[in-house]
Design the sequence.
């Protein structure tokens, strides 16, 4: 079917990480001119994030074994943007979705962009479990520490403890040490036995798994598996030590001035929620996740790709982005390439991803055991005890707890507390699983927006 | 002490990319030095342990996610709106405050 320039459907891609870039490329291949909206200054996403102009480290220093993939993605996107084959709105956030339109804020203010089809490639963020003391300045997500290193060439402390679980825990430790940073300990809450449990899934990518093992070995005695985190001791300046139990239950204390926390990653699903996608609770990820078919079709002209749908990692995201775009082309009746082998590849990467999730699980039981005075919501300082009291008089449903107890009401909108809060609510209410505590509903704006931009937008008719 | 080692009082340690042009900014009225290409967060944390006081507790805040998701790193300017420090590039002469301006209710 021939499409004239004027009649070309308008496809918007949100996110310019590996999924968004490959989606945009496939749409261009189908003869379309997609609009790509991304919060970053330059395309690449978080994993292939580029430092500002003028920084000198070569891609090999920034991305290690993945440098060739990073270079290929950056080149693909930059050349399409330079040739006018796509429209790139950088430093821009989608804050609301309604009636086939996206409200976008950027340096120039707010405006609405309409779409015929929407591809959401919103990526992931650190999945964090509160640890008593984690509200002190100098405690960061593992992803944050990696961004500081990659995009700014800096470490966020002189003596760093990394704690949590997942591939990033090991990777970041290796990257920091290689760059000359000082890592005092790597504390993995997953035991060796748990890590072996994910092995059948990990075998779907033997080389990748092997590389992880080699990195782990290089950490030597800095790495501890099967630990329990007791608390972060802080003084007026920030963290002073991490108190933890080793696998044998012995108390340990590691002095430090910075802590990185993260339990693998979680999907960023706020826009999928506003776009009306269905959600289901996933036992492996212990999170409510948007639903889509194997191509990423979520219904209503919305497509999901990459870590924002399931944590599949960067390679999986590239494939998923392309598949979502091909699904989009198919649904528009446009010629689309054959993707049978890519579908098989994504299925294999999904098996691997599930293996990773099983090997490095979210320590749900730690949430139930948090002392009452532990801050759960960092935005507003809501404690575990306050959440439990709220459940007593308000019931064991997360949206009620949010309204009555404010966890999830702060500036981050629950992104960093809702998973732990759901576990605490479920435990206090006697639910068998966090799923029974319900799903926290997303609300626009999904990022804080200056009121001046919204007033201006309303005044000009949107 | 060189910039590469990190200034005394700062939280952030520069491990690479130290050969950049200097930029100046003001933190609570005092002139400070940073490097071209720094984010506001990097610049402030290279000379101070935190960005701001928490509104809801006694502790200071120094950012958490560095990718615009957690909103922990909003910092005041002397005249004008707050900035998200992790995603705002430092500009020459910026005047930043670690606490709300006095006339703020």
Sequence:
């Amino acid at each position: 079917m021939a499409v004239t320039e004027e009649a070309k459907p308008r496809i918007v891609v949100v996110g310019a990480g590996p999924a968004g870039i490959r989606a945009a490329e496939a749409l261009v291949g189908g003869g379309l001119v997609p609009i790509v909206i991304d919060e970053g200054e330059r395309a690449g996403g978080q994993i292939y994030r580029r430092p500002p102009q003028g920084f000198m480290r070569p891609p090999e220093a920034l991305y290690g074994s993945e440098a060739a993939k990073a270079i290929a993605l950056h080149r693909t996107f930059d050349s399409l943007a330079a040739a006018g084959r796509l429209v790139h709105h950088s430093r821009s956030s989608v804050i609301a979705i309604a009636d086939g339109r996206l409200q976008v804020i950027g340096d120039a203010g707010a405006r609405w962009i309409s779409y015929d089809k929407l591809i959401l490639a919103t990526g992931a963020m650190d999945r964090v479990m509160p640890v008593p003391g984690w509200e002190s300045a100098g405690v960061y997500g593992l992803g944050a520490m990696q961004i500081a290193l990659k995009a700014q060439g800096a470490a966020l402390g002189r003596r760093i403890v990394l704690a949590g679980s997942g591939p990033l825990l090991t990777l970041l430790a290796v990257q920091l040490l290689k760059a000359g940073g000082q890592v005092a300990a790597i504390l993995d809450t997953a035991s060796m036995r748990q890590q072996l449990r994910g092995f059948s899934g990990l075998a779907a990518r033997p080389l990748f798994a092997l590389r992880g093992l080699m990195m782990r070995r290089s950490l030597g005695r800095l790495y501890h598996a099967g630990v329990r985190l007791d608390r972060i001791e802080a003084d007026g300046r920030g963290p002073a030590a991490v108190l933890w139990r080793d696998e044998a239950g012995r108390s340990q204390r590691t002095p430090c001035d910075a802590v990185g926390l993260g339990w693998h990653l979680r999907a960023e699903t706020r826009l999928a929620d506003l776009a009306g996608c269905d959600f289901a609770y996933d036992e492996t990820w212990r999170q409510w996740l948007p639903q889509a078919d194997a191509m990423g079709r979520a219904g209503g002209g919305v497509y999901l790709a990459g870590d924002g749908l399931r944590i599949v990692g960067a390679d999986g995201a590239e494939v998923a982005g392309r598949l979502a775009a091909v699904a989009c082309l198919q649904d528009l009746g446009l010629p689309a390439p054959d993707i049978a082998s890519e579908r098989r590849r994504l299925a294999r990467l999904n098996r691997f991803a599930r293996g990773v999730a099983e090997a490095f699980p979210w320590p749900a039981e730690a949430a139930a055991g948090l002392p009452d005075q532990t801050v759960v919501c960092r935005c507003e300082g809501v404690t575990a005890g306050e959440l439990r009291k709220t459940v007593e008089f308000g019931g064991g449903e997360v949206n009620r707890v949010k309204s009555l107890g404010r966890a999830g009401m702060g500036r981050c909108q629950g992104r960093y507390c809702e998973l732990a809060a759901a576990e605490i609510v479920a435990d206090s209410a006697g639910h068998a699983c966090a799923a029974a505590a319900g799903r926290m509903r997303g609300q626009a704006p999904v990022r804080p927006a200056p009121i001046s931009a919204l007033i201006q937008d309303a005044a000009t008719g949107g | 002490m060189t910039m590469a080692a990190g200034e005394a009082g700062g939280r952030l340690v520069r491990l690479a990319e130290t050969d950049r042009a200097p930029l100046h900014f003001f933190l609570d009225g005092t002139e400070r030095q940073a490097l071209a290409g720094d984010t506001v967060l990097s610049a402030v944390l290279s000379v101070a342990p935190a960005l701001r006081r928490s509104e809801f507790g006694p502790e200071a805040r120094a950012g958490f996610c560095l990718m615009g998701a957690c909103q922990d790193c909003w910092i005041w300017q002397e005249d004008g709106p707050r900035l998200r420090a992790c995603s705002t590039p430092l500009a020459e002469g910026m005047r930043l405050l670690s606490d709300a301006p006095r006339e703020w209710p």
